[in-house]
Amino acid sequence: MSSCLVVVDDGNLCGEAPLWDETEQKLYWTDCVACRFYSYEWKTKQKKLVLDGFEVNGCALDRSGGLVFSNSSGVWFWDKKSKPLLVVGELGTLKLGLNDCIADPQGRFLAASCFYNPSSEYSLGKLFCVQTNGATQILDEGFHLANGLGFSPNGRTLYVTDSVARLIYAYDYDPMNGRAFNRRIFVKVGDRAGLPDGLTVDVEGFVWSAEWYGSCIGRYVPN
What we know:
Blueprint: E1 15-21, E2 26-31, E3 36-41, E4 46-52, E5 58-61, E6 67-71, E7 74-78, E8 85-88, E9 90-91, E10 94-95, E11 98-103, E12 109-113, E13 125-130, E14 136-143, E15 146-151, E16 157-162, E17 167-174, E18 179-188, E19 195-201, E20 207-212, E21 216-220
Antiparallel strand pairs: 1-2, 2-3, 3-4, 5-6, 6-7, 7-8, 9-10, 11-12, 12-13, 13-14, 15-16, 16-17, 17-18, 19-20, 20-21
């Protein structure tokens, strides 16, 4: 990539979770600190504040035309008309304080919990999978600050970021049953670089990772 384009100079306190809707030709993103959720219509070049006063840490498209959100209270569904509806907020005694998220090719919703507090003791997060019927399962655990997730083009490799550990993990993923296994280190970001944060995978299978405090984006070969 030889150049970058500023789409919206928005002054976000913490801009996160860009999501492209191919059908509507819209870009969605959140200012998670200001609790504002935006859309940008590509054809008209118009930005809109579509949800105000609600925390969104991650988002995924729903086939109904609505959106599914992850935040510090759990998983929510929003039909774009009424208020967001809580889908699941806890699993047993576990609170689903969630950060980033992704939908798998079969429509399951994956997100990891994040309880990082550098000034005190903190719990390690877990990777959750919410089935299309709302049933929730733990896929893995042990994340210091869970962040960006992505799937390979064939849906059989899942990538999960742990920002504090400076690691991007890769899993073998069973798309039929929604299971992740064989976790291994895909990328170890150097101590002098930024922290791996948001993540996506392109059509060739290359993994893109935005570095918080690093002022750059890394593109990694699948192997």
